[in-house]
Every structure is written in C-alpha cells, then in structure tokens.
What we know:
Layout: H1 3-17, H2 22-25, H3 28-40, H4 57-66, H5 82-100, H6 105-111, E1 115-117, H7 123-128, H8 138-147, E2 154-159, H9 164-184, E3 193-196, H10 202-210, E4 214-220, E5 231-237, E6 249-254, H11 261-278, H12 282-290
Parallel strand pairs: 1-3, 2-3, 2-4
Antiparallel strand pairs: 4-5, 5-6
Helix pairs in contact: 9-11
Amino acid sequence: xxxxxxxxxxxxxxxxxxxxxxxxxxxxxxxxxxxxxxxxxxxxxxxxxxxxxxxxxxxxxxxxxxxxxxxxxxxxxxxxxxxxxxxxxxxxxxxxxxxxxxxxxxxxxxxxxxxxxxxxxxxxxxxxxxxxxxxxxxxxxxxxxxxxxxxxxxxxxxxxxxxxxxxxxxxxxxxxxxxxxxxxxxxxxxxxxxxxxxxxxxxxxxxxxxxxxxxxxxxxxxxxxxxxxxxxxxxxxxxxxxxxxxxxxxxxxxxxxxxxxxxxxxxxxxxxxxxxxxxxxxxxxxxxxxx
Length: 291
C-alpha cells in the first residue's frame, strides 16, 4: 500500500468516526476495530527516481538497483521530499524496534529452545555495560552445567543481540539448514540454546561448560537504515583465557537481502567442518587454508 492509499484509508476511517459519539468509540469492540485497522496498514518501498528533471535517469536507476542506499531521492529546497522523509522515519523506527522490542514469547515457544539469560537485567544495562552480556547469570549457568551435553563437536547458541527482528526473520530457516548440514557430515551437536541479551563472548563460557570443540553464535546484528533484520554467525575453536577477536570467524549480513538464511546454514555447516578439520578458526584458519 503506498502513502496516498494509507492517507486515504485513514481519512475514511476518521470520517466514519465523526458519526459516532465518544462513548461508542471507547467501547472494547471499537478499540479492537481500530487496532485491526492499524495492523492492516502496510508500507511498501519502491525504487523510484525522484530527482526533478534528472540529466541521466538511467544511471540513477542502475545505481538504485544495486544498493539499498538512498540515491536519487530528490529534494525540496534543502530537505528531502515527504515520501522519502516518511520512508526514513519508518526505517529508523524499525531499527529502534529491532533493538528494544525483544524476541517474542511466541517465537521462543515455536522454536522450542531452552532459554537462558545473561547477567544483563535490562536492555539499558545490556547497552551500557558490555560485560553484563558476556556472562550467564547464576541460574542459567547452573542450568547449563547440569543439562547441556558435554564433549560434543559443535555447540550452537542463538542470541537476540542487537536485533530481535533479525532472529525472528532468519532462525526458522537458518537453524534447520545448519543442523541438517552438520548431521549429514556426522558431526555431533549439543543442545541448541537461546540466550537473552547476550553478546558474542558469552560463547566462551558456554564452551567451557560443555567442553565442545567449536561453539557458534547466531546473533542479531546492529540494525541500520538499510535493514533491521540481519544476523551474524561467530564461531571459534576451543576458546580459552588467551582468546582474542582474531581467533573468531564471522559471517555477517545473513538476511533475505544479503546471504539467504538457508544458504547461510549450509555454508556454515561446511565452514564448521573446516574448523574441525584444521582445529583452528579466525585468522589462523584462513592462513592454514591458504597454505
């Protein structure tokens, strides 16, 4: 639905509301109708050259087709046009929502993963205190020590990170593809867990608890205005107290507009097999594969 259609629908609903008294509008049934109207509004993006009288329209269209960047949007005086401004606000709102909304309970029930918790008690603490997201809280650590399988080759972690939207949009397809790929290769897998408000380094603690060979974290990426639904995969071979960032291998931009989640799952299974074969990850793995 385009902007004009949205405005038209809203105006029609407002006109209908004028014929009802205020008491009727406050009834539960009417509130439900209003909520249904809001849910039905859909904003569809379209790549259109909005520069007035462009000198080379074809070049602008070509560039628009290969990048999500805001190119050829035109302007009114020193400001962007209304539609582009609304488009910007929608993308900005989606990015904020991805960070603060949190993964829904319905999704967690659907994927049937054990839910653990970092030491971050709130999203504010998670954003302001990095270390709070790098360790399990006491209850989760005790549960993991008691219930997670030990000495498996691969341990998978799913984390909301900075994009709950990315997790909900991609894990349903990515996780089964990854697990199937590992099973085909006869690679043993521990129980996949979901960890709320966790950061990449929490995988080191999980690895120490499970004594796995490789731990892989599927975590929501920091959202941008191009997409709020991207996730990354971080994996590391037997992390310890001397581990540095260069020891981790990362595959980013997993989403419909980047690496499709099913394709990413299959690729990650191959990558994990390489890590197990070379007993290394990160920069060391790259060097071994080049030699």
